[in-house]
User: What shape does this take?
Amino acid sequence: MGTAVLSSHRDAGGGLTLVALDVDEATARTYTTAGQYVEIRAEKGNGYFVLAGDEGARRFELLVRNAGDAADALVNGAIGTSFAISTALGEGFPIHAARARPLVVAVVGSALAAARPVLRRRLDDGDAAITQLYIGVRAAAELPLAAEVEQWAERGIRVVLCLSRGELHHDEGTVPRAERVTGYVQLAIERAIAAGKVPHGALVVAAGPEAMLAALRGLGGAGAVEVVTNV
Assistant: This one.
């Protein structure tokens, strides 16, 4: 385990906190692919968190929901607090191989962390027009990182808010460029494939609850799209 130092935390909206940790160069080099995650060890307990910043950066960013243990220490800890941290774990997403290919990013809640580095790379590569982001939240008012999501939409990424409460017209000022649909992410993507909004053969990368991931893997098994999850 290496050492990470808490350098900042700020409210990200939706009950989440964007946390920044400074890490040593060797640990930073292990973060090579969007979708990887780290283990944080604190006195209160351990936790696993998806990396939300740019690959290889000396500052690791995490989108944290305070569920106690390590999450509580990250959200409420004093700036300068040290934590034990693993190297970046998991294979992540094959984003480097997806250039110029239609891509769908599917996330729920704090898993939006995994979308951040993916979408930044797609914008840098000029692939915004063939990139779609499906975000699952209960209501638009609970969307984290709303300003960033709106910037992605402004730059040409198709953003779809999947609202499980079905309140399509509430908080219309939140990401006004986004499309809004009712229901879960996996169902919205299935409908979009049937309607031709998601082209056959597209790559779908997903992070979120296992029920969503399993349903999306089922779509991949049917051959309509290729699906890769981060777990």
